Structures are given as C-alpha cells and as structure tokens.
C-alpha cells in the first residue's frame, strides 16, 4: 500500500504540469486581456502597450509559461493583474466559505442519501422504494439555481429562519456560522443525496441477491445484521466511488450557489477573474481544482482496500 501511495503521489507531478499547460495555453487563446479592464478608456495605444510590457503580457508565450511554472513549483501562485495583490492572499480568506459549504453539504448528503438507499433496498418495489426513486429523479433533475432561489424565498424571506445573503465566519461564533451556511449546504446536498440514495439502493439490491446473503439468512442472523454487517459493506464500493466524485464536485462546483447567496468564496473569485481576464487567479484556481481531484481520488482508492479486503494494490 505504501509503495502504491508513493507512486500515485509521484504521478501527480506530470499531471500538475499537464493541467497547468492546458489551462495556461487555453487562457492565451481567449480573446482580450486584463489591460482593457485596468486602463482608462481614454488611454492611448502607447499607454496600453507600455502597461502590457510592465505586466509581461508582451513576452513570448513560452517565456510567460516557463516563468509561471517556475513560480508555481516554488509555491508562488503569482500576482493578480487587476489588484496587484498576491493570488494566495486573495484565495486564503475565500477558502473558508467554500470549504464550509462543501463540508456541510457532504455531511448532509451522506446522512440523507445513504439511509434512504438502505430503506429503499430493505423493501424493493414497495411504496417507500418508489418514493426514494422519485426523490432521486427529482433531486438530480432540479436545477441548483432554481432550488436556491426557491429556498431563499421560502426560508429566508417568507420564513426568516436563515439569513438572506452573505457569510459569517466561524470566528464570529459557531451558531451564526451554521446559520449562514446551512441553506446553501442544503441546496447543494439535494442533488448529491439523490445520487447517493440511487447508488446505495442499486448496490444493496444487487448484493442482497448473492448466495452468501442467503447463507447468512439461513444461519438465522437478524435481517438488520444481514443488511448492515454483510450486505452494505460489499455494496459500499460504488458508494465510495460516488462519494469521491461528489466531494470534488461540491468543493469545486459551488460557484452558482455562492453567486445566488452572495457568499465570498472561491467560485465567485473564479467568475470575477474570468470576466476580468485575470489570468494568474484563473490558473491558480484551476491548479487547485486539479489537486483536489487527484488527492480525493487517491483517498477513494485507499478506502477501497478497507471496505473490501480483497482489493490489494
């Protein structure tokens, strides 16, 4: 296992290089640059070119890429072209809101989706099973932005249970922090909980038809023991796979939710950077996304071996 983990960690180096190269050159292809946002509308062409020279935008593309990759491997994510602040200082205060919503959304998804899937598999083709399948289809199909506006109108305007907009840091109190992230977390957890319920139900129904389950029942084991100790453990592999992908999606896919709830997270920062052509911020956030995918997938593979001892690396 240790050798496998080491190989996977070493494999991240070329992956990071490839993702960095793709993101860098794709942004170079895009029309426009940050100069049009920074400079005054009445500026002359000479002033625009002077600003591009100062920002290094007139250097050959390969020179810009080599400079950026060199800074990246030294831990320097660059400097914003618009604000002239280091990218790390712009990202640091926005990590907490995004990670807070993603964490709570993941917890709610697991606590809602997996029990629903287990209940549906307990009585296949029953009314409860059909209700869970209906929830899975609706939850996965409803657009997140529509559900966000509906939740705001219901639980923040009509029933002022949660704040309408904004984010409260955990340093200002756990309860205000929870109130500010609960509604966004519920919204993003609906679709993921629907996927968890469907995957858990499908895996359990398949496993419950295996011979060793019939043997366990023939030995007189309680149905609860059969489901949780024998069946669910073997049905958890696809659930773990889904968990890995959905956790990454929650961390990197909160952009719409952050915009609707005006939460100052990484998603809003990315949208602003793309609009302003602030390339260093875009590159840094894409690299962060790639690293999250890499390490969550590695953690998922490690969990496989603990969920099913037959899996060895």
Structure in a nutshell:
It is built from 13 helices and no strands. It is mainly alpha-helical and 313 residues long.
| Backbone structural class | mainly alpha
Please identify the oligomeric state. Answer: single chain
CATH first level of the largest domain: which class? Mainly Alpha
Mean pLDDT: 81
Order of helices and strands: HHHHHHHHHHHHH
Distance between the termini: 6 Å
Number of domains: 2
Give the strand tally.
Answer: 0
Number of helical regions: 13
Features of the shown structure:
13 helices, 313 residues, MetI-like fold, 2 domains, mainly alpha
Helices and strands, with pairings:
Layout: H1 2-29, H2 35-38, H3 45-55, H4 61-73, H5 87-122, H6 127-141, H7 144-158, H8 174-207, H9 211-218, H10 223-252, H11 255-260, H12 266-276, H13 279-307
Helix pairs in contact: 1-13, 5-6, 5-8, 5-10, 6-8, 7-8, 8-10, 10-13, 12-13
Task: Explain how this protein is built.
- The relative contact order is 0.14.
- Helices cover 77% and strands 0% of the residues.
- The chain has 13 helices and no strands.
- Helix 1 (2-29) packs antiparallel against helix 13.
- It folds into two domains: 2-73, no CATH class; 96-307, MetI-like (MetI-like fold, Orthogonal Bundle), CATH 1.10.3720.10.
- With 313 residues, it is an all-alpha fold.
């Amino acid at each position: 296992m240790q050798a496998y983990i080491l190989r996977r960690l070493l494999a991240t180096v070329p992956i990071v290089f490839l993702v960095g190269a793709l993101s860098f050159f794709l942004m170079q292809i895009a029309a426009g640059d940050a100069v049009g946002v920074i400079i005054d509308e009445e500026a002359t062409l000479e002033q625009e070119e002077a600003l591009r020279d100062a920002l290094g935008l007139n250097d050959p593309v390969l020179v810009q890429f080599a400079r950026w990759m060199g800074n990246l491997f030294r831990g320097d994510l660059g400097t914003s072209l618009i604000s002239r602040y280091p990218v790390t200082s712009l990202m640091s205060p926005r990590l907490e809101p995004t990670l807070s919503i993603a964490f709570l959304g993941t917890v709610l998804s697991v606590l809602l989706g997996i029990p629903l899937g287990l209940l549906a598999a307990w009585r296949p083709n029953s009314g409860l099973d059909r209700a869970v399948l209906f929830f899975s289809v609706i939850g996965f199909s409803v657009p997140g932005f529509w559900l966000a506006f509906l939740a705001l109108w219901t639980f923040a305007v009509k029933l002022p249970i949660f704040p309408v907009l904004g984010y409260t840091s955990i340093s200002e109190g756990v309860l205000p922090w929870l109130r500010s992230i609960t509604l966004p977390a519920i919204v993003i957890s609906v679709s993921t909980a629907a996927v968890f319920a469907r995957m858990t139900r499908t895996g359990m129904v398949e496993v419950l038809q295996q011979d060793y389950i019939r043997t366990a029942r023939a030995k007189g084991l309680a149905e609860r023991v059969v489901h949780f100790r024998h069946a669910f453990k073997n049905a958890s592999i696809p659930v773990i796979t889904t968990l890995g992908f959905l956790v990454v999606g929650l961390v990197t896919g909160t952009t719409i939710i952050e915009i609707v709830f005006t939460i100052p997270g990484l998603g809003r920062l990315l949208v602003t950077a793309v609009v302003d052509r602030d390339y260093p911020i875009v590159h840094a956030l894409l690299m962060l996304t790639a690293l999250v995918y890499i390490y969550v997938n590695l953690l998922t593979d490690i969990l496989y071996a603990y969920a099913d001892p037959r899996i060895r690396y």
